[in-house]
Amino acid sequence: MRRVPLSILATLPPVLLLLMAPAHASALSYTPCSTNAGFSCASLPVPLDRSGAIPGTVSLSIERKLSAATASHDAVLALAGGPGQAMLPLAPYIAEVVSTALAGSSTGRDLLLFDQRGTGSSGAIVCPALSSQREIAQAHSGAELIERCARQLGPARGAYTTRESVEDIEAVRQAAGYEKLVLYGTSYGTKVALEYAARYPQHVESLVLDSTETPEGPEPFHVSTFKAMGPVLRELCSAHACDRVSANPVAELARLTAALGVRPLTGKVLDGRGRRTNVTVTSRELFYLLLAGDLNPAIRPQLPAAVHAALNHDASPLARLITLAGVHPASEPSADIDFTLFVDTSCEETPFPWQRTAPEATRAVEAEAALNSLPSSDFYPFDPESGLFDQTIPLCVSWPDASPAPPPVGTPPNVPTLILSGGQDLRTPTEDARRVASLIPDAQLVQVPYTGHSVIGSDLSGCAKAAIASFFGGTAVQGCTPAVNRFPLAPLPPRALSSVAPIAGVVAGQARTVAGVLDSLLDLRRSVLTVGFDFGGIPYGARFGGLRGGTVRVTKAGTVLNRFSYVPGLQITGLVPNGIVLKNAGATASLTIGGSQAARGRIRIGSGGRISGTLAGRSFHVNAAAKVKLASAGEGGEAVSEPGFPVPQLAHLR
User: How many other C-beta atoms can be found within 10 angstroms of the C-beta atom of residue 247?
Assistant: First the structure.
C-alpha cells in the first residue's frame, strides 16, 4: 500500500483527513451533553458544497450514547422527518424507541444522532422573507415571498438536498469510527436512509423504515394520498362502525367535495368566550382536515358524521371540527419543522412536472397540463384540481432552482429491513410502503390498523413496538392482530333533544335529558382529545365553544363548562374532572342542567356511569355504564381508557 507523505497530509482539509481515517478510529472529540443525560456531544465540520463551487462549511452537531464502556463496532443512526426537523431534541425519545436495537447484537450497538444540515444546531438557515413579520406583511403574494427567500439564501440554497445529507451521514460514520449503521428513518428520514443504503450498501447493517417515502420522494400531485382516502375511510368504518352514521362515507365525501366546488358552506362556531363566528368550509379545508388525521387520531372518526350533517344543511359540526383542529397553545412554537429548510429541500429536489429553468408562468402552465393529463379517478373522492392543494407545487412554482436535478436513486441493498405502515396514513400511504418493500426482496412489511403517520409515535396497540423487538431479537416478525379502534366513530349530532334516545331506568320526563347529558359529555371527550393531541397532552388552558352553545375551559382541576350545549335546548354548567372526561373513572362531577327543552335541575355523575340527581323536581338514580361503554367504544364493546397522548414525534409535512 502506498504511503501518503506527511507533508501532503498537513495540507489536506480536516474533512478529507476524516475520510481517510480507518474504520472504528473515531476522529471526534466528545464531551458530556448538557441537554440529554447519558449522551456525549461532538461537532463535525463538513463542506457546504462538496463540488467546491460554494465556499464554506457546515458544523454538524452530533450526540452519541454508548451501549457499553467503549464504543461498539456498529451504531443505530436515526433520521428525522420534514425535511426540516431537528433530531437532537428527540434524543431521549429515540433511545427509548430503538432500545431493543441497541441491545440486539452480541456486543450491543451505540446510538448515533445528529441534526441534519440546516436544522437545529447544525447551521439552521433563515431567510427574512419567511421569518420577518414586516416582510411578510409587505409582500403582495406568497409567491413573491418564496422567490425573495431564494434570492436571500443565494446559491447556497442548492446545498440542502438529500444527496448532501447522505454524504453528511457517511462523513459522520467515518469520523465516529463505525463499521456499519442500522438506519432508522421516519417519513422524510426514510428517503434519506434509502438513498444512503443505495449509495453505501457496504456500510448498512439493516433498515427500519417508519412511514416510508419512495426512494425518489413524493410525487408532486400526491396521487397515492388521494387513492388512500377510500381504504382509510373503509378501515375506519369496518365492523359496521358507520352503519348508524352513513351508508357510504366515501361517496358522501365525494358528494360534499363536489358541492363545495360549486359553493362553499358556512358553519356557525362559538369561540372560547362564547362569541359566535362564521367559518367558511371549502374543499381545501376538508382536504387539510383529512390530512390532519394522520397525526391526530381523534379527528378522522368525527368526519363521517360531520360530512353527513353538512350534506343535510348543518355545517356547524364540520366547521367546529376545523376550528378544534386549529387550536394550539400560545406558548408553544407553531411547529417543530424548520419551514425555510422544508421549502428549500422540497423545491430543489421534488420531481415537478416542469422544466427547472423555466420562469414561473411557464411552470404554472406545464403543471396544469400535467395535472389535466391524469384521470379524474386518481383524485376521487376529490377532483383533479385538488392535486394542487398540497404545499409543494404552490410553494415551489416561483422558486429558482440552484442545484441540478437529483440523479436517479439506485436500488437499495437486500439487507434485513422492517417497514412499518399505518393503516390510516395519508401522507405516506401503505401503497408507497408496498412499493418500497418490492425493491428489497427480504423486507418485512407490517401494516398497523387504525394508526396514522409516524407509526411508532402513533400506535396504541403495541404491534409496532413488538415488531421492532422481534426484528432485532432475531425472531419472526408477526403481523398485527385484529384491533379495536381506540377512537370510535362519532354519532350524528342531534338537531333537537326530542331526537335523543331516552335512557332506560329513568322516568319519561327525565330520560331524554339524562341521555342528552351523557351524549354531551362524550362529545366533550372527543373535543378535548382533538385539542389534546395537538397540545401533546391534556390541553390545560385551552378554551373553545360547544357545538350548539356555551364554552369550555380546560384546567388542571378539570374541564369547566358554562352553558355548554351539544344538544339544542340542553345546557350544562359545572366542573367535569379530567378523569371523567377521559376515562369515565376516578372522580365525580356535579352539574347544573338548564335549557329550553331540558328537565332542569342537578345531576351527579360518578365513575363507571353512575348517575343520580334531581330533575324537574324529581329525584332519580341510574347506572348508565352500558350506554357510556357503548358510546365510548363503538360496536367493539371495549371501553376506551386514557390514550396517553402519544405524540408522533418524527413528523412529516408533505
Answer: 9
* Phi-psi domain of 550 (left: phi exceeds 0; alpha: psi -120 through 50; beta: other): left
Per-residue pLDDT tens digits for 77-126: 999 998 999 999 999 989 988 888 888 666 689 999 999 999 999 998 98
End-to-end C-alpha distance for the chain, whole angstroms = 49
Q: Which residues pair with 594 in a beta bridge?
A: 571
| Predicted TM-score (pTM) above 0.85 | yes
Q: Which residue has the cell 384540481?
A: 385
The set of cell numbers assigned to 174 is 467515518
CB contact at 8 A, 284 and 391: no
Better-predicted residue by pLDDT, 372 or 628: 372
What topology is assigned to 6-122+160-219+406-473 in CATH?
A: Rossmann fold (3.40.50)
- Could you give the C-alpha distances from 379 to 118, 195, 223, 424, in angstroms and in order? 34, 29, 6, 17
Sheet of strand 40-47, all strands in order from the earlier edge strand to the far edge: 31-32, 40-47, 57-65, 110-114, 74-79, 180-186, 204-210, 417-422, 444-448
Kindly state the helix (H) or strand (E) to which residue 551 belongs, with its residue range.
strand 549-554
CB contact at 8 A, 129 and 149: yes
Radius of gyration of the chain (CA): 27
Query: Rounded to whole angstroms, how far apart are CA atoms 261 and 220?
Result: 22
Domain boundaries, the chain: 6-122+160-219+406-473, 497-636
Nearest one of 569, 549, 436, 566 to 491, comparing CA atoms: 566
Q: Which carries the bigger pLDDT value, residue 13 or residue 507?
A: 507
